[in-house]
Amino acid sequence: MSAQAQATALRDQDAPWTPEDAAELYRVDSWGAAYYHVNEQGHAAVWPHGTDELSIDIAEVVADLRARGVPFPVLIRFQDVLQARVRRINRAFATAIEEAEYDNVYRGVYPIKVNQLHEVVEEVLEAGQPFSMGLECGSKPELIAALPHMDDDSALLICNGVKDATMLRLILAAQRLGKPVIPVLEKYTEFVEFMRLAAELAVVPRFGVRVRLTTAGSGRWRESGGDRSKFGLSIPEIIKLVEVLEARGHPESLELLHFHLGSQIADIQILKQAVKEITQVYAQLRRRGVPVTHLDVGGGLGVNYDVGYSSDEPGISYSLQEYANAVVYSVQEVCEQQDVPQPALVSESGRALVAHHSVLIVEVLGAYTKDRITEDFVPAEEDHATVQRMYETWKWVRQNGGDAPTPAQLTEAYHDVWEGRNEADTLFALGYLELEQKALAERLYWSVCHAVLDSLNALQDEEAPAELVELEEQLVDHYLCDFSVFQSILDHWAIGQGFPIMPIDRLDEQPTRRALLVDLTCDSDGKVSHYVSANDDKRFMPVHALREGEPYDLGFFLMGAYQDIMGDAHNLFGRVAEAHVYADAEEPGNYYIEKIIPATSIRDMLASVQYFPNDLQRRMNHLIRQKVEAGVIRPKAGTELLEQYMRCFDDSTYFDTRAK
Question: Of 174, 237, 474, 622, which residue is 20 to 30 A from 90 by alpha carbon distance?
Fold first, then answer.
């Protein structure tokens, strides 16, 4: 059964296609997290506050941007979604703490490595201000960027990663200002260096340690925890560290214990196990007299990108509230058993905070489909015998010989036409077949393949032969899209991360095509290789046929985490244009565009690899003058060519559909 047949198998075939059918096909309810939906007009839309009180039509926003002359692709940031995520996570922990009667507070921090863009960080801090939300940094540049934003003395700044002496001195200086800046020491040697610098400055340091737990994560991030973890102190190292602190009379310097199971925790039971394990470490240290005050459970709060895509990478099966409950109740259980004070809780859920707020809008530039013959085709008498035989096969499959064909008969027809195409290729290579006849044989081959597949789909109760199932892959359309996989969805290429993709309009029409999305790069890996859909076969995306003169826009969702900052400049494709959108019920369409950030220009991309306009202009001018002096072109034409060349520097790096 084909991908399209799968998508409609459970539907009433006589019922018209509805926006609800599209939402089910693209699994919007699974990944939309109460923010994204398909509206009655058949458009992708967003509930910016996470409720259905106010909706923004994404297709309207895109039309607005196009009318303003914004070049595509464009990234739309729905800033209210970002704020709503911050509030929702903090409130989930507040609810768990209240219901459990937990005897301490929650202090969330945002790890800026997930998205360091200034406006994203500021939105998170603004929305998190009522909750004393802090930040987490993992490098010296991130520390320098984050430190001036720590206005709230109760908001934590957690410092992870490898730290040199300059970074450690800056942390100690911030502590002397009275700021709760807590370095999480990743190695025992880092502890030794930190203590040396503290003694040099005559201050009592405050720090945390990352504990190397026995519990490991699962999936592609399983090595973030456990014995093979890149970072963390072993239990023997922690005992040695504590003995040093006790000998110096400052066990209170150790304020925080931290662990991290990876960017995505799929199994809530693994989280509970890890939380209980580190809480046992905490309890034993407290009973020993080390007054640890904070327990940091790291990141890993899951986001359902590609739910149902792979049995090896299951979707996130728990809710946000269940995650918060798992942390709070697990810590409380161990603390009560061990009769120790309950610590302040910290989490670093960056992906879950920012993933949902941005959508990449990509225009389809064209479709490559397999050429077929016309419905009324009849071969001429002079056409080659191979073409004649392939035509007879096509006619038989279409007419079914008067009866419904069996899978075995369809397989035989496919074998016949495959043999015919192979014969035509051989004859052409030997010089015995004209180019026009080879083209005709190729079109007949694809026509028979389509006819065989259509007949096969009509036999839904029959088991299809494996080689006919492969026709699905052979006959898929290639939709050329105006973006770079390596710049905008690098995690898809690097680690196979799935991202929800769907058309932003025409969702009230049933998609009749199956497409492989390919990008602008000249790399064979520049494609989207699997898709989020209700179909069993995730290799292809259900799409609509393109219409002449009408843009067909795709929305790439959950773009906010990592993709903004990790993009690769393959083929020198740069950052895309951005639009920052805020909800406002008083405005037309319930929104206004607060800011538009231009895409990276060709000038800036070339400068990043040491090509500069002045030098390039000089070289181009020299080349043109040589041709003018040689009489190849006239001086006026040479001047116009140089001006044309220099105008390109300010263009976007992407395909410009506005260019005429």
Answer: 174
